[in-house]
Structure prediction request, 547 residues.
Amino acid sequence: MRTRLLAGVAALFPIILLQAAPVHAQTAAALAGQVSSEQEGAMEGVVVTAQKPGDIVTVSVVSDDKGHFAFPKDRLAPGSYNLTIRAVGFENSAPAKAEVTADGGANIDIKLRKARNLAAQLNNAEWLASFPGTEAQKDFLMDCTSCHTLERIARSTHDVDEWMTTITRMKGYAPVSQTIKPQRMLDPARAGKPEDYRQAAEYLATINLSATDHWEYPLKTMPRPKGAATHVIVTEYKLPRPTIEPHDVILDRDGVVWYSNFGEMFIGKFDTKTLQHTEYPVKQYKPDAPVGILNIDFDRNGKLWFDTMYQGALGELDPKTGEMKMYPVPAEYNDYRAQLNFVGLRHDVDGKVWTKDVGTNNVLRLDIASSKWEMFRPTDKLTGPRGIYQLISDSQNNAWLAEFGDGHLGRIDAKTGETKWFDTPTPHARARRMAIDDHDNILLTLYRANSVTYFDTKTEKFTEYKLPTPYTAPYRAAADKNGNIWVSNMTTDRAVRLDPKTGKTIEYLMPTETNMRSAYVDDTGKNPVFWIGSNHQAALVKVEPLD
Ligand code: HEC
Prediction:
């Protein structure tokens, strides 16, 4: 009886599906189409971007294994759109335009041809894979990706001597710089001396165009997205000035986006519903020092705290009133070397906030009520290269330190001031950024080890997950409600989702160069949504996986 019933139900299904499918196809998409090329036929993994000329919002989808792509109806308002693509090695063979109507159903075939300027399409990871040489020779190039891409290096014609002075000039720039806005650090010692860079210079002269008129090594490209990596919608919101560098991006309870501007003295706010952009100016204390803000985060009272890097102060913004309080570091700890970043925000425990100074390796703690500052020297216990990247507070307001020079994780006990250091599971891993959950588990990116790592602060054990794509060099990571880990990076232009149960990743390709710093997950909807600041393209980027 049961079998017959099931068979009967099964027999009904094909009929229902046959009737439903064409109707569905007509109403679901605002715009759909096919991407193909002579070389490959139908092409999977091509990012297709739609933009109304002059609009600040662009929407991107990715073609499936049949070369088919579709923009859902609620994502494109009626109007004329230009369509651009990203598929390394290919370009549009002719400008693609489409007219979207309120009824949807627009269709377009996009024909691609071989790119005439492949080098202009490579991301940093592709350059690093292409450059000949040993990993040890290439290592320092990881530090050349934060202000501009490696293409500039490959295309240059500097010989060894010119490289030694060029690298010295680069080392003197503050990380808040972009090529359109160089900013020099006040501390001359940070630049080093040309002779310090002879080895790097000798290597660079072998990979650029100083001795030849073309690269004598093949340009290697990463595979295009496949399968699950094509199930995504990426929305970019362009900010009004190219000098805005959205570094850390977070959402408030109403879903409004807040970001730190790494290149200017503003905290930014952006409402994706109204497209309204608001900027809160931050006081500049030192007229000659570089400007820009790295980190922002909410404290337990809903106030936004931020650092001011070379300006040597912390700030607190009430997002409701726009009122701002500043906490400048006292002169005894605040000279031309100051580069404050990150705020340890569990002052609900003991009334104190932590921060640290890259220029001196000082860790500082402010007692908010008494305005008293204390100074700690945790890295004095370490030997070899050392520098603290991030500082974060745990539930007892102990300070945790990600050590970037070599690779350690440290803790300063809030009560005793004692420091304890832990070696990262991969040696010389260069610990970069952290996130901490309510159980004091720390999620840590290991920049040079190409991994993300949990540290259980109770058992003091690490669990490391290697990222499969070489040179991903993770910047920051965040866990979503499904337990997946999202990773931002400055090399692959891919937002990475790692499943710790299987160790597998899905890598979502962004439509443009997206030098990513933030890794914020909005867990309020059905699927987690990942937010990034496009640090070089002045855009906020929303990555919505469809599964
Ligand atoms: C802190 C930001 C920053 C970092 C990091 C950085 N650069 Fe630059 N780079 C700039 C800026 C700003 C410019 C444009 C102004 C200039 O040329 O001085 C530039 C321009 C260049 C140029 C083109 C100009 C020229 O003289 O040929 C090259 C090549 C270059 N950088 C190489 C490098 C190398 C190699 C590294 C890593 C050792 C590096 N950069 C790291 C900021 C940076």
